[in-house]
Amino acid sequence: MQTGTGGSDSGAMADDVPARNGLRARLHDIMAGLSLASMNIPQVLGYTRIAAMPAVTGLYTVLLPLVAFACFGASKHLVVAADSATAAIFSSAVGRMATPGSAHYMALVSMVALLSAGFLLVARLFRLGFLADFLSRTVLVGFLAGVGLQVALAMTRDMLGITTTAHNPVLQLFQTLSQLAYVNVPTLLLSGCIVAIIMAGDRLTPRAPLALVTVVGTIVASMTCGLSRFGIETIGPIAGGLPRLSIPDVSWNDMLALLPSTTSCVFVIIAQSAATSRAFAQRFHDPVDDNADILGLCAANAAAGLSGTFTVNGSPTQTAMAVRAGGRSQLAQLTFAIVTMLVLVFLTAPLQYLPRCVLASIVFTVALGMIDLRAMAAIRRESPGEFGLALVTAAAVVGIGVEQGIFLAIALSLFRHVRHSYEPHTMILRRDGQSGLLEPYDVRPGQQTAPGLIVYRFCADLFYANATRFAHDVRVLVDNAPTPVRCLVIDASAITDIDFSAASDLRDLFTALRGRHVTVIFGRVTPYLRADMDRHRITPVVGAANIHAQLHTAIAAAQQAMAGSDTPHP
Length: 570
Known about the structure:
By secondary structure, this protein is mainly alpha-helical. Helices cover 64% and strands 5% of the residues. α10 (252-283) crosses α17. It is elongated and about 100 Å long.
C-alpha cells in the first residue's frame, strides 16, 4: 500500500512540474507585456509624427491590430504595430492628395490599411510566404544589424535634445554632429543615466522590468519636479478614448490613386515581417509558418483600417523589445494590448509628462542589442563571402532604407546562388591507388579515369548559363586525354533539371563526340532528369540503352563497349 501511495504521489508531483513551468512562463509573458507597453506606447506615439496622424492613433495601432495578429498569426514573437518604414511610404503619397491631419487625410490613411489587408489576403491565398525562403540567415543577421544601427542613430537626436529634419540615417548623423554645440545638457545627462541603468540591469538582473521602472519614475519626476523647466522636452497632451469602428469614406478614384503606395507598403510588410519573425524564430528554434503570419498581418491591417488608424507592420525593434523583456509567446502582446486599452481610458493625462529622451534612451539600448556581433564574427570566420553579404545588407538598410535593403539583400542572395550554379564544382572520378575505389579529383587536362574512359561529374543543374562550362570541361578532357577516349560516363547524381538552351548545347556536344567515335553514357539518372532528356530530345542522341539509374551499371556498360572495340578497360 505504501509503495502504491508513494508511486501515486511521485506521479502527481511529476504531473505538477509542467503545470508549474507553464504558469511561470505565462507570468513571465505577462510581465514582459507590461514592460513592452512601457517602452512601446511612447514609441508608437512617436511614429504618428512620421505618419502625420493624431497622437492617439498611434495607440490604436497597438490595440485591435495586436489582438488580430495574436489570433490569426503563427509567430510567437512578432510584434505587429506602427512602423516607420510603412509610415514614411504612405504619408509621402497621401500627403499629396490631402492636407496632413485633416479628416480626408485620415480617411485616406485608414483606407491604405484596408487595401493592404486585401492585398495581404490575396498573398495568403496564393501562398506567397515562400518569398521569405530567399532570406538566408546571413541576410537576417545583416538586416537586424542594419535596423539596429539605423534606429540607434535616429534616437540620438532626442537623447541630445536637438532637432534634425532628415529621414535618412546618414544625413541624420551629419545633422546631429553639426548641432553638437546646441546639446541640452540636462537632457544628455538624463539620457546617459537611463542607458547606464538599463545596460547595467541587463547584466545583473536581465528579467527585471527596468524600462517600466524608468518610465514610471521619470513620469513621476516630471510631474513633481517639472523637468521641462530644464529644457527636457516631454511628449505633450494626448487625446483619450477607445476607437470607433467604421469604414473610411473614400471615393473610388482616391482608392485607385492609393494603389501604388499600398503595393509598396505590402511588399515591405511581407519582407520585413518575414525577416523579423524568422530571425527570432531561429534564435529560439521555433517553427515558422510564413503564410499564417501573412493571414495574421491581413487581419491586423483590417483591424487598423476599421479602427481609424494607419498601416501596421511586423516591427524588428518592438519585437526585439518583447524578446528582451522576456516575452516568449503572443500572451505578452495581448498583455500589451490590454495595457494600451487601460491607458486610452484612464492614463493619457500622466503620459504627457514622459520625457522624450527617456523613450529614446530605452529604444537606443534595444537597438544596440539587435546588432549581434557574435553572429557576425561567426559568419566572418566560417564564410567571408557571406560576411560581406551581411555587411552589404546592413549598410543598405542604414544608407538607403529598410525596404530597399531587404530587396537588395534578396537580390544579392539570389545572385550568390546563381553564381554558385554558374560556376559549380566539376570533377573527374579516378581510382584511388590504395582503396581501389573511384574518388573525385579536380578537372585538369591530361586526366583519365582509365585508358579510353572518362567518368565526369557535374555538380549542378544544367541551364543556359553553365552549359558552356559543361561542354568546355568535356572537350578539355577528351582533347587532352593521353589515350584516345572511347567512352565518356557522366555521373548525373547532382543534375535534376536541364533547360531548353542547355539541352541544345548538349545535343551539339554529344553529336560531335559521336562523330569522334566517343560513346556517351549517363549514370545516376533520376526520373526527373530522364523526363527532361526525353522532352529535349537528348535521349535519341545518346541512345536509351546508354542511360542508367546507377553509376556502376553505367561504368559496366562502358567497360563492355570498350571490350567490344578491343580497348583496354580498368
